[in-house]
Write a structure and sequence with these properties.
A hairpin with a 2-residue loop joins strand 7 (about 125) and strand 8 (about 130-135). This protein starts with a strand and ends with a strand. The longest helix has 17 residues, at about 15-30. With about 160 residues, it is an alpha+beta fold. It contains 4 helices and 9 strands.
Length: about 160
């Protein structure tokens, strides 16, 4: 087993870049004329991002501003889990969160994809919120990486390639 080459599949987000994107979004919302007087704001408390405005269209525009700032900071929108707008009193809100780690159901999909479409000698195991992929051939592992880059359900990175 020691002669096997491995890599880990993870889904991580740079929290400093997320914080910078949120700060930029807050500044833009305060400065933009179309957000004046509509109660538009973005609040970030640990895990949750809360966007508020007085109409459904405005709160969707706040979400759009946040998404554009995340993209500029090279954070995949697959990592942003935004809910639907809902009314709370006189204002509309959208709750969102930044998703890190690979969920169990997504990990099972990735495992199945590797079993079905990767080269024959490639094995994968789920280890918490990441996957370890191993094979005797480094070329097979690189082909598996290319296959996983086409995966749509999560933002994946590859680390510890040995």
């Amino acid at each position: 087993m020691a002669s096997d080459s491995t890599f880990d599949v993870v889904s991580k987000v740079d929290s400093q870049e997320v914080s910078n994107a949120l700060n930029q979004a807050q500044k833009e919302i305060v400065q933009r004329y179309d957000f004046k007087g509509v109660g538009a704001e973005v609040d970030f408390s640990g895990e949750k991002i809360l966007m508020k405005a007085n109409s459904e269209e405005r709160v969707k525009a706040v979400l759009d501003v946040l998404q554009s700032k995340l993209v500029k900071r090279n954070i995949s929108l697959k990592s942003l889990d935004a809910g639907e707008p809902y009314q709370s009193g006189k204002e509309y809100r959208i709750e969102a969160s930044i998703v890190e780690g690979i969920a169990q159901d997504v990990a099972k999909k990735i495992n199945k994809l590797i079993r079905d479409e990767a080269p024959k000698g490639v094995k994968s195991t789920i280890q918490g919120d990441e996957l370890r992929v191993s094979s005797k051939s480094r070329d097979d592992l690189q082909a598996t990486m290319a296959l996983l880059r086409t995966f749509e359900d999560a933002d994946l990175q590859f680390v510890n390639f040995r």
